Amino acid sequence: MPAVSTIIWVGFGIFFGYVLWKSGIAMLRSMTMLPPEPPPTGELRKISQKYRCDVCGVEIKMTMAPDDDPPPPRHCLEDMIEVAPLYD
Q: Does 1 map to a domain?
């Protein structure tokens, strides 16, 4: 009769193999899915752009916009300049 510890190790091995198999199949399925359609015109899209005012130095981060490349916002009656992200 095998020892109880051997049965426990075999059970853990089977459980770990099952979890590894299921996660591998899930990753392969996620790679075959098509990306979602872009939202219709007029809906807001998620973006991440930073702008700085040349006149006073105010910085803002734009997170939502109606299109992928929005025009720069205005501050101090001038267009703000786009700032390259350092670590994003």
A: yes
SS3 call for 21: helix
* Sequential DSSP letters for 52-88: E-TTT--EEEEEEESSSSPPPPEETTEEPEEE--S--
Could you tell me how many residues make up the chain? Answer: 88
Q: Is the pTM of this model over 0.70?
A: no
Domain interval for residue 77:
45-83
pLDDT tens by residue, 35-74: 878 777 778 888 888 999 999 989 999 999 887 788 889 9
Task: Give yes or no: residues 21 and 50 share one domain.
Answer: no
